[in-house]
């Protein structure tokens, strides 16, 4: 079955960096685009970044453009989110996502907290 496992979250000071990873299994990873979403307390889940199956097309939410970079390693079945210049408003649970056969699959999420 499809499994997505996020890691790499934690507590970081404003201006700092974190790299999130999402390890995927149970499907042909290199055939699907992958996305990162986030959800802050009391807010709706929002798209952070999306990458095509071979990594040639990347899209970002307006709030993270120029600061976050999505990438993938199809040999390792892993998608990454490099987050730089972090701000307190980036605090959220970050989720990995794949859309397959009109169904969305999600990982358990990893908490990112940006605070001094």
Shape: globular
Strand residues, percent: over 45%
- The proportion of residues forming helix, as a percent range, comes to under 10%
The arrangement of helices and strands along the chain is EEEEEEEEEEE
Alpha plus pi helix count? 0
Poorly predicted segments: none
By DSSP, the count of extended strands is 11
The first-to-last residue Cα distance is: 40 Å
The secondary-structure class comes to mainly beta
Q: What is the makeup of the main sheet?
A: 7 strands, mixed
Average pLDDT, all residues: 97
Q: What is the rounded Rg?
A: 13 Å
Structural summary, described in words:
- This protein has 116 residues and is an all-beta fold.
- The chain is 0% helix and 53% strand.
- It has strands at residues 3-7, 10-12, 18-25, 34-39, 46-51, 58-60, 68-73, 78-83, 92-100, 103-106, 110-114.
- Strands 2, 4, 5, 6, 9, 10 and 11 form a seven-stranded mixed β-sheet that branches. A four-stranded antiparallel β-sheet has the order 1-3-8-7, with no helix packed on it.
- Strand 4 (34-39) and strand 5 (46-51) form a beta hairpin.
